[in-house]
Amino acid sequence: MNYPQALENLILEFMKYPGIGRKTAERYALFSVNKIDDDSAKAFSEALLKVKSSIKQCSICGHLTDVDPCSICTNPHRNQTQILVVETAKDVFSIEKSGRYHGLYHVLNGALSPMNGVGLDDLNFQSLWIRVQNDIVSEIIIATSATQEGEATAMYIKRVLKDIEIKVSRIGYGVPVGGNLEFADSETLSRAIENRREF
């Protein structure tokens, strides 16, 4: 027996989230019908619409924010000489939890992956090149993941910056090879940043 169309539509929407397969989506949809009251359903839908309308990417660093530029870019107490380059906004949140890094960030919104159709034009490189022209910036810290795509992205950044008078370093490998930053704990991330090496 097929699900009623409205329920099937909800299942298909849940399946759009990463890591959510058909069975999990069915469980979420049935829970929504049976266990969530009208007020909670309304609050959920309003929260989803609000996040879509108010959260944007910072025009300077690409991080997620509800003000532009973001609070990190406009904080005069941050170290303006360092830019930590990460793949995703989730990486920024993970590193910020450690409380040990006090410089600026640059979010690429992914990593180079030609096999998956992610090329140079798909990532936030152009604004990074503009930022490194600023005389204040003296170090770029590359914190892409220790995956094949992350390494390729790091090598590309290093190659582009090789003729510019700027220190390029790579986070230390307290982060496991093949792992994503978002899964590393804050202490591991702190040590990886502190133990960075010139790249």
Key features of this structure:
alpha/beta; 5-stranded mixed sheet; Helicase, Ruva Protein, domain 3; two-stranded antiparallel sheet; 7 strands; 2 domains; 41% helix; Dna Topoisomerase Vi A Subunit, Chain: A, domain 2; elongated; single chain; 199 residues; 7 helices
Number of strands: 7
Tally of individual domains:
2
- Unreliable runs: none
Q: Could you describe the largest sheet, including whether it forms a barrel?
A: 5 strands, mixed
Per DSSP, the total helix count is 7
Mean pLDDT across residues: 90
The CATH C-level class name of the largest domain? Alpha Beta
Any idea of the CATH topology of the largest domain?
Answer: Dna Topoisomerase Vi A Subunit, Chain: A, domain 2
Q: How would you briefly describe this protein structure?
A:
This protein is 41% helix and 14% strand. By secondary structure, it is an alpha/beta fold. The protein has a 5-stranded mixed beta sheet with strand order 4-3-5-6-7. A two-stranded antiparallel sheet has the order 1-2.
